[in-house]
Amino acid sequence: MIQSKLLKKYNNISHGFFNNLDGYSKGVYKSLNCGIGSKDKKKNIEANLKKVCKKLGCSKNNLILLNQIHSNIVYVINKIPKKKLTGDSIITNKKKIALGVLTADCAPVFIYDPDNNLVSAIHVGWRGAYNKIITKTINNFKNKGSKINNLIAVIGPCIAKQSYEVQSDFLKRFLNQNKFNKNFFNFKNKKIFFSLNEYIKNQLKNSGVGNMEIINKDTFLNKNNFFSSRRSLKNNFDDYGRNISIIMIK
Q: How far apart are CA 227 and CA 231, in angstroms?
């Protein structure tokens, strides 16, 4: 489990970014696969979810995982929803409600307001980032009375620029949005590479967030022990596990 240096200072919240180690799953899901949407055995996924919840001191029944669709849909909740919500960002100020994000190259992002005791967990792939899920989430914080310059944002492990090769139409899409976006691309040997976490960081900065941290762990690289959809595709696997990241007000 990896923790943020910024968030570790606050005793009233619990958080962690988990990789694929120390779980119960086998094969391509080895071993801490928390992806309910994967083809892994349900009993193994349940056991893995219980393990991470125990590590963070939360009840599995109080863990909220969204049906993630690479959207910019944000929820502000006051209680455990009766059915699974579809979207990619969730905010709460309630104690003991754990907010979880599942990723396999996309970025898990936590935002914390220490003044108003608000937390958010966001699933941010390129589509969600492009469609301003970060900005929409921060606007919801603002609506709840947060001072944006007091917010703390942490961008968790995701695919790094050197591993994220994209095509020219991808580049064109981002340049059409804003010419400044060229700063998030590298060009090497006639190949194009994109930095997801720097693009997210820029959105946070433009929104007025001053306290930011990037956890620089490339999920694509085997040595970092994260599940990676891109690496699985490269290896011709028919499925892949999901990493989980959780934040909770104690």
A: 8
Task: Please provide the average confidence, as pLDDT, over all residues in the chain.
Answer: 97
Question: How far is the C-alpha of 56 from the C-alpha of 13, rounded, in Å?
Answer: 10
pLDDT the model gives residue 87: 98
Query: What is the pTM assigned to this prediction?
Result: 0.98
Nearest to 227 by CA among 128, 159, 160: 159
- Name beta bridge partners: 29: none
Please list, in sequence order, all residues whose beta carbon lies within 8 angstroms of the beta carbon of residue 176, skipping any fewer than 6 positions away. none
CB 218 within 8 A of CB 163: yes
The answer to whether 98 and 60 are in contact (CB under 8 A) is: no
**Pure H helices in 58-188:** 126-130, 133-143, 168-177
In the chain, domain spans: 7-160+195-249
Q: What does the alpha-carbon distance between residue 180 and residue 175 come to, in Å, rounded to a whole number?
A: 7
Architecture of the domain defined by 7-160+195-249? 4-Layer Sandwich (3.60)
Looking at residue 66, its pLDDT comes to: 98
